[in-house]
Specification:
GmrSD_N, 388 residues, HNH, zinc ion binding, elongated, HNH endonuclease, 4 domains, binds zinc ion, alpha+beta
Length: 388
C-alpha cells in the first residue's frame, strides 16, 4: 500500500460541488465530483447533533487543525474518504448553508460571517493522506485507524471489513431508521439503529444459533445478495417473544436469542405464564426483574436468577431482639433449631453477629421478604437450611 501526504487541498476545494443528502443524512460528493464522501464502508453522518459539527466549524475559525484525514485512491483515479467523513460533512454543510453556528453571540449561517472569516474558513488547508492499494489491505488498515471524534464500534468495523452486498442488504433492513418495524423491535432490543446495534443483535442471534462467530458468519455470507436466513431467524425470535409474553419495559435488552434457542420448542400455558410474570414483577424483593422471563420459562427452577433481596438490617435487629428475649425467658437457645437439639447448643444464646436472617417459608414457595416471614438462625443452621 502506498500512502502519500497532501497538504494543498483547502476547505474550498473539498466543498467544490459538495452534495449533502438531508434525507439519508449523508455527505455524498466533493472535490468537484472526484471525491466520494460516504463510500460503502462508512457509517452515517453522526456529527449533526449541534455540538460536534459546530465544534468542527469552531476549530476552523480558531485556526486549529482538524486532524489527519485519509482518502483512498481508487483504480479509476477517484477518491473515497476513508477517515474524515464526519469532519468533511460538517464543514460542507456549513459552507453550503445547512448548518448554523453561534458567532459573536448570535446564530448565523455561513453567509452571515464577515468576509475575512469566510475566507479564513474556505482557505483552511487540510492534511490528507491518500492511500492506494488492494481493497483488503486498505480495509484491514482502516480497522486500525484511531478515528478522531466518535470511535467506530465493533459492528461498524465489521461492516467495513466485510462490506459488500450482504452488509448493504442487511443495513437496509436493520440499520434503517425509516423501517417501520424498528418501533416494535425497540421493545426487545436496546441501542441505536444508526450505530448498528440492531444489526449486531440480529447477527449475534443467528450466529449463536449456528454455533459460529459473527465474523465467521459475515465472511461466509459477504457476497450473498440475500439476507433471507438472517431476517427470517430474527423474525422468528421476535415473533416468539411477542407471542409468548405481554409487553413490558423489563423485556428490553435481554438475551432473547439464547432464550429462544433454549425454550421456543416448549409448550406453556400462556395465561398462567403471564399471570405469574405480572405477580413477580410486583414483588419488591426481586432484585433482577429482567430475569423473571427466564425464570418462568425454566419452570421456576432457578430462584438465583432473580437475586431476591435479603432482609433489611433493621428487620434483623428487631427479630433478633424479640427472639432472644423470648428464648431467655424459656431458658432455651435463641436459634430455634438449636433449641430443638439435644447437644450443648440447646441453651446457647448467640450474639447477633453469629446469626443470619432466614425466610421461614422459602421465597421460592411464596414466602415474602418481610418481618413476618423472618427468623434469625445461627450461621451453621442457616447454611444447612440454605443448602437444602
Ligand atoms: Zn442453630
Amino acid at each position: 500500500m502506498i500512502a502519500k501526504l497532501h497538504t494543498e487541498w483547502t476547505v474550498r476545494d473539498i466543498c467544490q460541488g459538495f452534495i449533502y443528502n438531508e434525507y439519508e443524512g449523508k455527505g455524498l460528493l466533493g472535490l468537484n465530483g472526484k471525491l466520494t464522501i460516504q463510500p460503502k464502508y462508512q457509517r452515517h453522518y453522526i456529527y449533526n447533533d449541534g455540538k460536534k459539527d459546530v465544534a468542527v466549524i469552531d476549530s476552523l475559525l480558531k485556526e486549529y487543525p482538524l486532524g489527519l484525514i485519509y482518502f483512498n485512491k481508487t483504480k479509476d483515479g477517484q477518491f473515497e474518504v476513508l477517515d474524515g467523513q464526519q469532519r468533511i460533512t460538517s464543514f460542507g454543510r456549513f459552507v453550503t448553508g445547512k448548518l448554523t453556528i453561534l458567532f459573536n453571540g448570535r446564530e448565523t449561517d455561513f453567509t452571515g460571517l464577515p468576509e475575512e472569516k469566510k475566507e479564513l474558513v474556505l482557505n483552511s488547508k487540510l492534511v490528507v493522506f491518500v492511500c492506494e492499494g488492494e481493497e483488503g489491505e486498505i480495509l484491514e488498515w482502516f480497522q486500525t485507524i484511531n478515528i478522531v471524534g466518535v470511535k467506530l464500534n465493533d459492528q461498524e468495523k465489521r461492516n467495513a471489513v466485510f462490506c459488500g452486498p450482504f452488509v448493504d442488504a442487511a443495513k437496509a433492513v436493520f440499520s434503517n431508521t425509516l423501517n417501520a418495524n424498528i418501533q416494535k423491535w425497540s421493545h426487545y432490543i436496546r441501542g441505536d439503529v444508526k450505530r448498528q446495534d440492531y444489526l449486531e443483535k440480529a447477527l449475534q442471534w443467528i450466529s449463536n444459533a449456528k454455533g459460529v462467530s459473527v465474523d465467521k458468519y459475515m465472511s461466509c455470507y459477504r457476497y450473498n445478495t440475500s439476507i433471507a436466513e438472517l431476517e427470517s431467524y430474527f423474525n422468528s425470535v421476535i415473533d416468539w417473544i411477542a407471542g409468548t409474553f405481554q409487553m413490558d419495559d423489563y423485556m428490553c435488552g435481554l438475551e432473547w436469542g439464547r432464550l429462544y434457542e433454549e425454550y421456543h420448542s416448549k409448550h406453556y400455558d400462556l395465561i398462567q405464564l403471564n399471570n405469574r410474570v405480572r405477580e413477580l414483577l410486583l414483588d419488591e424483593s426481586i432484585g433482577k426483574c429482567g430475569n423473571i422471563y427466564e425464570y418462568v420459562l425454566g419452570g421456576e427452577a432457578e430462584p438465583r436468577l432473580l437475586e431476591v433481596r435479603i432482609f433489611e438490617d433493621s428487620t434483623k435487629k428487631l427479630v433478633y431482639t424479640r427472639q432472644t428475649a423470648l428464648a431467655k425467658e424459656q431458658g432455651i437457645s435463641n436459634c430455634p433449631l438449636c433449641a430443638l437439639s439435644n447437644d450443648s447448643n440447646r441453651t446457647r444464646i448467640y450474639k447477633i453477629g453469629e446469626m443470619d436472617a432466614d425466610h421461614v417459608t422459602a421465597w421460592s414457595r411464596g414466602g415474602a421478604t418481610s418481618i413476618e416471614n423472618c427468623q434469625m438462625l445461627c450461621k451453621t443452621h442457616n447454611r444447612a437450611k440454605g443448602n437444602k
